[in-house]
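>> received
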Amino acid sequence: MSRNTELHSFEIESTGKALYEYGVLLIKNLLLLNGGALVALPAIATVLSEEVKQNVAGSAALFVTGLSLAMICGYFTHLNWLFQHSAYLELKNRRARKIGLICLGPELQNAAEVETDMAEKLPFERAIKWTFWVPHVTGIASLISLVLGCWLLLGVTK
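>> returned
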Protein backbone atom coordinates (compact mmCIF):
# COMPACT_ATOMS: atom_id res chain seq x y z
CA MET A 1 0.00 0.00 0.00
CA SER A 2 1.41 3.37 -0.93
CA ARG A 3 2.04 6.14 1.54
CA ASN A 4 -0.60 8.31 -0.13
CA THR A 5 -3.24 5.59 0.21
CA GLU A 6 -2.36 5.06 3.87
CA LEU A 7 -2.62 8.80 4.55
CA HIS A 8 -5.98 8.99 2.79
CA SER A 9 -7.31 5.99 4.75
CA PHE A 10 -6.10 7.56 8.00
CA GLU A 11 -7.83 10.86 7.19
CA ILE A 12 -11.10 9.12 6.37
CA GLU A 13 -10.91 7.04 9.53
CA SER A 14 -10.06 9.99 11.80
CA THR A 15 -12.80 12.14 10.26
CA GLY A 16 -15.29 9.32 10.73
CA LYS A 17 -14.31 8.95 14.38
CA ALA A 18 -14.65 12.69 14.97
CA LEU A 19 -18.08 12.76 13.36
CA TYR A 20 -19.14 9.76 15.40
CA GLU A 21 -18.02 11.42 18.65
CA TYR A 22 -19.85 14.61 17.69
CA GLY A 23 -23.04 12.65 17.02
CA VAL A 24 -22.77 10.79 20.33
CA LEU A 25 -22.23 14.08 22.16
CA LEU A 26 -25.27 15.63 20.49
CA ILE A 27 -27.51 12.69 21.40
CA LYS A 28 -26.24 12.70 25.00
CA ASN A 29 -27.07 16.39 25.24
CA LEU A 30 -30.57 15.80 23.88
CA LEU A 31 -31.12 13.11 26.50
CA LEU A 32 -29.71 15.27 29.29
CA LEU A 33 -31.75 18.33 28.36
CA ASN A 34 -35.07 16.52 28.11
CA GLY A 35 -34.39 14.24 31.08
CA GLY A 36 -33.13 17.12 33.21
CA ALA A 37 -36.20 19.17 32.43
CA LEU A 38 -38.39 16.23 33.39
CA VAL A 39 -36.51 15.69 36.65
CA ALA A 40 -36.67 19.40 37.54
CA LEU A 41 -40.40 19.59 36.86
CA PRO A 42 -41.58 18.34 40.30
CA ALA A 43 -39.41 20.95 42.02
CA ILE A 44 -40.96 23.66 39.90
CA ALA A 45 -44.45 22.26 40.43
CA THR A 46 -44.16 22.59 44.22
CA VAL A 47 -43.80 26.35 43.85
CA LEU A 48 -46.85 26.73 41.62
CA SER A 49 -50.41 27.18 42.78
CA GLU A 50 -52.98 24.38 42.59
CA GLU A 51 -54.73 25.92 39.57
CA VAL A 52 -51.53 26.06 37.57
CA LYS A 53 -50.34 22.53 38.48
CA GLN A 54 -52.90 21.01 36.13
CA ASN A 55 -51.17 22.65 33.16
CA VAL A 56 -47.78 21.24 34.16
CA ALA A 57 -48.86 17.82 32.89
CA GLY A 58 -48.77 19.11 29.31
CA SER A 59 -45.23 20.33 29.82
CA ALA A 60 -44.22 16.98 31.34
CA ALA A 61 -45.75 15.16 28.37
CA LEU A 62 -43.66 17.29 26.01
CA PHE A 63 -40.48 16.53 27.97
CA VAL A 64 -41.25 12.78 27.90
CA THR A 65 -41.91 13.03 24.17
CA GLY A 66 -38.60 14.83 23.68
CA LEU A 67 -36.80 12.19 25.72
CA SER A 68 -38.38 9.40 23.68
CA LEU A 69 -37.47 11.11 20.42
CA ALA A 70 -33.88 11.53 21.61
CA MET A 71 -33.67 7.79 22.33
CA ILE A 72 -35.08 6.99 18.88
CA CYS A 73 -32.52 9.38 17.41
CA GLY A 74 -29.73 7.51 19.19
CA TYR A 75 -30.93 4.12 18.02
CA PHE A 76 -31.21 5.11 14.37
CA THR A 77 -27.83 6.83 14.52
CA HIS A 78 -26.36 3.55 15.75
CA LEU A 79 -28.01 1.69 12.86
CA ASN A 80 -26.67 4.25 10.40
CA TRP A 81 -23.12 3.80 11.66
CA LEU A 82 -23.42 0.02 11.37
CA PHE A 83 -24.67 0.27 7.79
CA GLN A 84 -22.02 2.84 6.89
CA HIS A 85 -19.26 0.65 8.30
CA SER A 86 -20.45 -2.39 6.36
CA ALA A 87 -20.70 -0.40 3.14
CA TYR A 88 -17.25 1.09 3.70
CA LEU A 89 -15.71 -2.35 4.20
CA GLU A 90 -17.37 -3.63 1.03
CA LEU A 91 -16.15 -0.62 -0.94
CA LYS A 92 -12.65 -1.15 0.45
CA ASN A 93 -12.72 -4.81 -0.67
CA ARG A 94 -13.94 -3.86 -4.14
CA ARG A 95 -11.20 -1.29 -4.55
CA ALA A 96 -8.60 -3.81 -3.40
CA ARG A 97 -9.81 -6.25 -6.07
CA LYS A 98 -9.69 -3.46 -8.67
CA ILE A 99 -6.12 -2.57 -7.66
CA GLY A 100 -5.25 -6.27 -7.80
CA LEU A 101 -6.59 -6.42 -11.34
CA ILE A 102 -4.54 -3.39 -12.36
CA CYS A 103 -1.35 -4.67 -10.73
CA LEU A 104 -1.62 -8.37 -11.52
CA GLY A 105 -3.26 -8.06 -14.89
CA PRO A 106 -6.25 -9.88 -16.33
CA GLU A 107 -4.31 -13.14 -16.59
CA LEU A 108 -4.24 -13.65 -12.82
CA GLN A 109 -7.62 -12.15 -11.93
CA ASN A 110 -11.01 -12.29 -13.63
CA ALA A 111 -11.54 -8.81 -15.12
CA ALA A 112 -15.25 -9.28 -15.82
CA GLU A 113 -15.91 -10.26 -12.21
CA VAL A 114 -14.08 -7.21 -10.88
CA GLU A 115 -15.94 -4.86 -13.22
CA THR A 116 -19.27 -6.40 -12.20
CA ASP A 117 -18.37 -5.89 -8.54
CA MET A 118 -17.53 -2.24 -9.11
CA ALA A 119 -20.78 -1.61 -10.99
CA GLU A 120 -23.03 -3.11 -8.29
CA LYS A 121 -24.63 -0.90 -5.68
CA LEU A 122 -23.16 -0.89 -2.22
CA PRO A 123 -24.92 -2.98 0.41
CA PHE A 124 -27.38 -1.15 2.65
CA GLU A 125 -27.39 1.88 0.33
CA ARG A 126 -31.11 2.45 0.77
CA ALA A 127 -30.97 1.78 4.52
CA ILE A 128 -28.11 4.25 4.88
CA LYS A 129 -30.26 6.99 3.37
CA TRP A 130 -33.27 6.56 5.63
CA THR A 131 -31.20 5.90 8.75
CA PHE A 132 -29.44 9.17 7.99
CA TRP A 133 -32.62 11.23 7.85
CA VAL A 134 -34.60 9.65 10.69
CA PRO A 135 -32.12 10.71 13.42
CA HIS A 136 -31.99 14.23 12.05
CA VAL A 137 -35.76 14.57 12.03
CA THR A 138 -36.22 12.99 15.47
CA GLY A 139 -33.37 15.06 16.94
CA ILE A 140 -34.92 18.28 15.69
CA ALA A 141 -38.35 17.13 16.90
CA SER A 142 -36.80 16.41 20.32
CA LEU A 143 -35.44 19.94 20.52
CA ILE A 144 -38.79 21.38 19.42
CA SER A 145 -40.52 19.31 22.09
CA LEU A 146 -38.10 20.64 24.72
CA VAL A 147 -38.65 24.23 23.63
CA LEU A 148 -42.43 23.82 23.57
CA GLY A 149 -42.37 22.22 27.02
CA CYS A 150 -40.30 25.09 28.41
CA TRP A 151 -42.49 27.64 26.67
CA LEU A 152 -45.61 26.02 28.10
CA LEU A 153 -44.04 25.97 31.55
CA LEU A 154 -43.00 29.62 31.31
CA GLY A 155 -46.48 30.52 30.10
CA VAL A 156 -47.94 28.67 33.08
CA THR A 157 -45.74 30.41 35.64
CA LYS A 158 -46.71 33.92 34.52
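>> The helical segments are 3-47, 50-104, 111-119, 125-157.
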